[in-house]
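Reagents: none. Just compute today. Stage V sporulation protein K.
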Amino acid sequence: MDHMTNHNGKINIVLNRERKPLKVTHIQHPEPSYTPTNHAVLKDIEKELAELVGLQEMKRIVKEIYAWIYVNKKREDVGLKAQKQVLHMMFKGNPGTGKTTVARLIGKLFCDMNVLAKGHLIEAERADLVGEYIGHTAQKTRDLVKKAFGGILFVDEAYSLARGGEKDFGKEAIDTLVKHMEDKQHDFILILAGYKREMEEFLRTNPGLVSRFPIIIDFPDYTVEELMEICQRMLREREYQFSNEAEWKIKEHLIQIKETLLPTAFSNGRYIRNILEKSIRSQAMRLLSTERYERKDLMTLEAKDLVLTW
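Predicted 3D structure written out:
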C-alpha cells in the first residue's frame, strides 16, 4: 500500500495487488493484540472482511480508522482534546471491485462504535439527485441527504454530476451536497464512487471538493488468481463445484479477457457472478435433457456448461 499525506493533509490510499516490492513511505506499526471484550466490534467487522477476497490494505485501513476513533474517545475520557472526525470518503475503481460492499461494512462499524446513529446505506446515482427544473435538484438532493442521516449516502458514478456543463443541474446537486457536508458533517457520511480517471477529473472541476474528502481510496482490479478464488467461494456458497476441465477453461478465459479488454470494460467480481449464474442455468438444461440427478451430477459444472461470452 502507498499511504501518503499530501500538502492538503489528505490521506491517499492505494491498494496494490501487484507482487513487486513496495516502497514504504510510512511507519509500520506492529499488529496490536486485541482483547475480545474491549474490541468485540472490531472482531466482528474483521470476520466479515475476512469473507472478502483480497483487499488486504483496505482491511488494514478499516483497523486504522477504528483505532483512530477508539483512541479519540479514550482522550476524551481523560480530559484531552479530541477532534471530531470528518469521515467523508471517495472510492475510485472499476465495477465489481467491492466498493459498495466495503461502504456497507463501514456503515456497520461506525454504527457499532456510535459514530453513526443507524449505519444504513443509501445508494444513489445521478438520476436520484438531479431534477428537471430549477430548484428541483436541490430538493431531491436534500431529501436524499435526510434519508441518509445517521448513515452513509453512497453516490455511484459521481463524476456524472459534473458532465453537463455550467447550465446542467448536476452542478446544483454538487453544491447542495457540499453545503450539507459542511453543515451536517457529523450527521451522515458521504461516499462518492466511480472510475478512477473520471473521479480524478471530477475533483479537478471543483477544487473545493478535494479538501472535503479526507479519505480517498483506490480499489484496483482483481488478479486472475483472486478472481478464481472469488469464483470458488461463490460455488461453495451455492453448493456447486467445477470439474477439472471446467476450472482450467474458466481460468484460461480470465487470462485472455484480462489481456484483451480495457480495465474499465471489465466488471471483476460482478463478471464472475454473471458467468456462474448463466452456467448454472446451462447445467440445469443439460441435466434436464439427460435426466441424471445424482448428487455429483447436481453439484458439478462441466466445461460444456460454462457460458463465457463477453
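Residues 2 and 250 are 32 Å apart (CA to CA).
Action item: order primers for follow-up constructs.
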